[in-house]
Amino acid sequence: MNKPLLLSLAAVALLGTNLNAQTMYERFEAMEKEMTKLKQEIATLKSVKSVKSTKKVDEEAEDDAEDDEAVASEDKGEKATTVAASSKDEEEEGGEEIASNEDRLFELEEAVSELNRNTTGSHLKFQVDYRFAVENMDYEMADGSKAKNDAFMTNRLWIDMGYKATNNLSFIGQLAYNKAFGQRSGASDPTSASLEAFDWIANENAYDDAIRVRTAYFLWQDTQFMGLDMPWTFSVGRRPSANGQLVNLRDDDTASSPLGHAINVEFDGASSQFTLNKTTGTSIKLCLGRGMSNAAPKFTSTPYTDVANANGGNSNIDIAGLIFTPYDDKQYKLSSMYYYADNLIDAANPMDYTAGFDTVGGMHSGTVYASAKGIGKNLGAFLDDTTVFASFAFSKTDPKDGAPQGMLGETQSKTGTSFWVGTQFPSLISEDGKWGVEYNHGSKYWRSMTYGEDTNIGSKLAARGDAYEAYFTEYLVDDILSMQLRYTYIDYKYSGSNGFFGDNTGTPMTMDQAVANSMGGMVVDKAQDIRLYIRYRY
User: Residue 508: phi, psi to the nearest 5?
Assistant: First the structure.
């Protein structure tokens, strides 16, 4: 088969699934590179065709002159016959080659047309990620009462978009829709309904039928920083801060930058990463974010003013963090994260979240983890494709002087800890599937910011107690259509795991203390979730 035809077939193949391309941009970039190659080859073929046509005309004129001369010279008749036969053979051979080139040219032009149709002629590229899920959820409360939902069904749609305008500058965004089937009967409950649109988690909840912006930011990348051979990046906007490192394994997603053990929320901010050593993968990333803006509504007498001073509102919630990765060779990785969040909040009235929030203080948090993508080398396909990890995290409260309440039930600083271990290994029933098992434990005063975790019974990584999880991810049609069956079980030792940072919603109580305080029917003791999803990505 001719090489140009191979390129043509390769172009058609690119229109389908490219298992090596992990992101939407990489898929379209591969298609556009192939299109450039095809266009160059078309131009070359057209040029060759034009040259051959001109050459043929010249040769035909030369042959005609030789034939006339041969006919006029009777003593050279034999030579004339030979020349005429040779000319005829070359004409047939040239005609076949030109016809072959025309067929190849037609195939290449068809491939380019198909690529143009798939890239839509637009700079902004799109990818769809749709997921249907059905969940069976059970709760056992501290007083022994039960609550459950046998079949909670949801639609989740992500529309990814992006474009790399130059080698250095890109735009990346994602629109999101997440909704329960039909109208929810308890959606108007004021004690919690108002939190579903809370900025940190609006796109992670099965909320209403609105499409919201989940991420939107520009990204600058360069191989040098101020003349130094140091790759670096800078970006600002709505951050890709949910489904972070390690949590992405069970979510079957590409990891965002935060370490998912401590942070899994949406927020707005900026970040800049510097690669200190390309050989060892050593890097440092600075992150700044704002979780709440201290500003009045626009249609007030003094819009966007400091409402804390004007009418007792909340101060800005700001976060500053550092992600340091000392080693990452794509198989073994050691990474760490530290952040401090200021002016954190608690519900002023835990029975009615529409009453607003109180500012209660700040919090320090640190995380470190180690992972191995493949146990050893050349120990067999199963171990080579098995991932194991271990993570440790801590949180330390910093109560605000003079605040109307303390933090987590205490006026003094308290430290909480959590550890998390897990493994993901190749499917035992298919070639491409991935199975996993995880366990995590949190202490009495452990507090994470993982409200956006994709677990409807509550963040398992926030648990003050023990959480167990097993999942089975299988691919039904290449990497386009997949399914997952997941089981999550949480055994709480203390209340307040999914609360805020003050006394009203964050105070840890044992189950016996909850019952003694007449709160046994409101505090979850044990929770489990069995979830099945079908997911389409292309």
Answer: -80, 130
Residue type, 516: A
| Cα 523 to Cα 507: distance, rounded to the nearest angstrom | 12
From CA 13, how far away is CA 28, in angstroms rounded?
A: 13
| Nearest alpha carbon to residue 479 among 411, 536, 421, 527 | 536
Distance CA 142, CA 139 (A): 10
What value does the CA radius of gyration of the chain take, rounded to a whole number of Å? 32
- Is 178:204 a contact under the CB 8 Å cutoff? yes
Q: Return the ∠ at Cα 480 (arms to 477 and 483), rounded to 5°.
A: 70
3-state secondary structure 51-110: HHHHHHHHHHHHHHHHHHHHHHCHHHHHHHHHHHHHHHHHHHHHHHHHHHHHHHHHHHHH
CB-based contacts of 271-275 (< 8 A; 24+ apart in sequence):
271/233, 271/234, 271/235, 271/236, 271/239, 272/232, 272/233, 272/234, 272/235, 273/232, 273/233, 273/323, 274/225, 274/230, 274/231, 274/232, 275/230, 275/231, 275/232
Kindly report the pTM of this predicted structure: 0.78
Residues 6+ apart with CB under 8 A from 407: 344, 360, 361, 363, 397, 398, 399, 413, 414, 501, 502, 503, 506
For the chain, 538 residues long, give each residue's pLDDT as a single digit of tens: 444 433 444 444 444 434 344 555 566 666 667 767 776 777 777 776 665 555 554 555 455 545 445 444 444 444 444 444 444 454 445 555 555 666 666 776 676 666 665 555 566 788 999 999 999 999 999 999 999 999 999 999 999 999 888 889 999 999 999 999 998 888 777 667 777 778 888 888 888 889 999 999 999 999 999 989 999 999 999 998 999 999 999 999 999 999 999 999 999 999 999 999 999 999 999 999 999 998 888 888 888 888 776 556 788 999 999 999 999 999 999 999 999 999 999 988 888 777 888 899 999 999 999 999 998 777 778 899 999 999 999 999 999 887 667 899 999 999 999 999 999 999 999 999 999 999 999 999 999 999 999 999 999 999 999 999 999 999 999 999 999 999 999 999 999 999 999 999 999 999 999 999 999 999 999 999 999 999 999 9
